[in-house]
Amino acid sequence: MPHLIPAEPQVLLLPGWHNSGPGHWQTLWEKRHGHTRVEQHDWQRPLRGDWSARLEEAVLAARTPVVLAAHSLGCLLVAAWAAHSRYTQRVQAALLVAPPDVAREDLAPHLPGWSPPVLTRLPFRSTVVCSRNDPFSSPEHTRTCASAWGAALVDAGESGHLNAEAGLGDWPEGLQWLHALMTPKD
Q1: Which domain does 76 fall in, by range?
Q2: pLDDT reading at 1 higher than 60
Q3: Per-residue model confidence as pLDDT tens digits over 158-167
Q4: What CA–CA distance (Å, rounded) separates 75 from 128?
Q5: What is the C-alpha separation between 107 and 136, in angstroms, rounded?
Q6: Strand arrangement of the beta sheet that strand 91-97 belongs to
Q7: CA distance 99 to 134
Q8: How many domains are contained in the chain?
Q9: Whole-prediction pTM
């Protein structure tokens, strides 16, 4: 009987509100590593149901298991989608970077329908990466999310919102965490 080699998982990139621009690590990973961005119909006025439907379509279209690499509002999308989808078994793992605190007074009016965030255990391995000086969240909020999601928590130091403005470039540390999630656990 031939030995079957498992297929490498497909990485789906889930940007946050306003998408990820040209210098963002997600865009660089898409260009340099061939990962797939999940395009949303409206990046300016994100509707949780619409964004979840797009993620569901992308997961179902994948020919291999997927690993999700989410930034900011994309992290909350993963949690909301996982709470309702019947296809979570297709997801091997998720890297969740800088989940925002959408209940804050300065964010809530711009992101209706996202607060409160879904804080239930994810049915796949996950790692949350946080920054101590994220302008859209606090370390306490990020720890709460990681704990509720059953995720490992990585402290990235003082790295802002872990986006292009933070000067991460291709973000080699993030790639290491992603590759660790892509390696199946025994």
Answers
A1: 10-182
A2: no
A3: 999 999 999 9
A4: 9
A5: 8
A6: 36-37, 10-14, 66-71, 91-97, 125-130, 152-155
A7: 9
A8: 1
A9: 0.95
